């Protein structure tokens, strides 16, 4: 109702003032025949800043009578609301009438004229514009005009030439995804005499919209110390910032227990949306903390909110995976006498690669009873995908005398990633086997 009062007061109460101050020529006394002679009495209007909102359309049927006009112009005094153009003064028109049918709502204009509206809906998606158009009965069969409709600056409808004798036409346009509506009337190229043009019962039809969020996949795995992304499509959201939050699925809460903190975190905690019909963004997840004893997997919900109001909620399964390390040694078999030392080349690979090479060290040695062991691991070369270091192996003692071949199982620590309790429990700890022969 407030919009209606504001719009009507601006176009009725202030129309004459706007005309007198904004026209290209001063007002003049009414002529004996006000519809003839090609005389023009131009009028123009632009909505004052912050006085009329362009975001007023709501779900359902919206009569443009109730919508704020962003800008208007007319060639025979002010545009009239809910009455014909009449003469040059504001409010001097009659009931809108086309071929004997009267209309309670609409705009009375005069070629050339223009009305501009926003199609941005509040909680709605507008998909249709309809109107009844024609030359008002007040000029009889005279007048000749062309009605045109522009959507986002592109002409979407042209009535062709219509006169006072023409049958009323119906405009029915798909306006899905459009942002601006312009209603234009031209003089059909023969001057503006008698060109009283009515936009009767102009309606904007809109559908209620609920913001929605869809993910390109319902589950995501993130490697330890790495990130991974989901593509999220936001539909029917208003323009502006949104907040994103990851919360545990209550169904996975241990009965009477405490849920362990998730090692997978959401890095994309806020976005700014453009307000387009649907837009897709990348959401980044990370696994920055130490990996536990086993692979981690749990159900979550991704929440989208604005100013504390929940807008969307979707489930997602998140899993943290260990980095796949492999270790090998070259050569894989050596022979030597008691106390002798051999230098081997240790290679460790990481999949997916690490950001940089990590120090390598012996985590455990198993299988030897004669004292043979890896004595040291040298400095590391290479990158985060492939790391190499020299390894010193020392033969133990062969108390029995005959030649004896044994196997040494060696676990490798990769920096801080597999240090400590994870030497034994890391899901993909690297290890290698060395065959060695003690000679007499």
Automatic annotation (TrEMBL):
PROSITE patterns in alphabetical order: PROKAR_LIPOPROTEIN (PS51257)
Residues of the Glycosyl hydrolase family 98 putative carbohydrate-binding module domain: 58-206
Entry keyword set: Signal
Presence of keyword Signal: yes
Signal peptide: 1-31
SUPFAM superfamilies per the UniProt record, alphabetical: Galactose-binding domain-like
The keyword Signal is assigned to this record: yes
Pfam families given in the database record: NPCBM (PF08305)
Protein name per its UniProtKB record: NPCBM/NEW2 domain-containing protein
Species whose genome carries this gene: Deinococcus oregonensis
